[in-house]
Amino acid sequence: MTSHITRRNFLKTALGAAAACALPGCSDSPVTPAPNPRLTARPGEPTITPTVGVTTLGLGGSRDGILLVPESYSPDAPAPLYLALHGATGEGSNWLGVRDWMESRGIVMLAPDSRGGTWDIIEQGTFGPDVGFIDFALQHAFDRCRIDPARIASAGFSDGASYALSLGIPNGDLFTHLIAYSPGFVAAGTPAGQPPVFVSHGTRDTILPVTQSRDVIVPFLEDAGYDVTYEEFVGGHELPSEIGEASLDWFLGAA
For the chain, which domains are there? Predict the structure, then answer.
């Protein structure tokens, strides 16, 4: 596997990183968000036959997203679901570079677009329309695919990693695993459940420094009682294939 997600193909900009770090507590404490970030979508009995492969969601106009249903999908065997959140100025289709990782493991991947240039809590300092759209997109996936309720991950890269953690904590009764590649912060919302967490960060990251994960995010999560797997690698603002695939094996319990 040679897939290698970098700052360039996630369209992460210095402006987007600055917006994230401008939030209160980016340097030394979690952000406290509002209003309600709770999601209502839940897996159940599918009512629509899914299209195998990659399809657009058809839910959000020019800012929409994609659903990947792997070739191996069968309604007779509940599949894991990976909610994939992009970096600043990106879109869900940026995740197509990891399609082979998902196909080889039989993972359904849902990758919505943020409503603005990045996720609402980063642009506005509070949860907003992205919560509702993600909820709608999750229900879209649940209506089509039989999803294993014991294997649902909230995952993201860069700004998307910060959002995956911040949205995942108050929805830990839906998400069974949280995965953050090079995050910049975590919002301190009211927790529901306590899913295990995977965090990775490059030691040479000049966009969101590794100290954000090493010295702020990981200790905060551990102090709050979360089981955290932390992987530091020599590299920049990127997702190396060995880290990405290791996180999926961790998610599926194969590590």
Answer: 161-166+175-255 (3.40.50.1820)
